[in-house]
Amino acid sequence: MLKVLLIDDEKWVVQSLKTIVDWRSLGYEIIAEAFNGVDGYEQIKKLSPDLVLTDIRMPGMDGLELIRQGSALNRDIGFIVTSGYKEFEYARKALQYGALSYLLKPFDEEEFAAALEQFGQKHLKNKAMWQMELLNRLQDNDTPSGGHLQELMMKLGFEWDVEVGAAVAVVVGPIDVPIPTDVPYLALQIGKNVKAYIVKGDCMAALVESFDAYFPEDVAGIGISSVIYDSTQLMDAIGEANAAAHQFFVTGNRGIWHAVLSGGGVDEVIEILWKLHQTRSTTCVDELSAKIKTLIAESKFTIRNAVSLYNWVLLHVYKLEEEQLWTYQQLANRFGYVNDMMAHVESMLRTYCDRSGATASSSAPVSTFNKIVAYIDEHFREDLSLQTVSETMDVHPSYVSQLFRKEASETFLQHVTRKRMVYASKLLKETNLSVQEIAESAGYLDYFHFAKTFKKMMGQTASQYREIERGPS
Question: Which DSSP letter does residue 86 get?
Answer without folding.
Answer: -
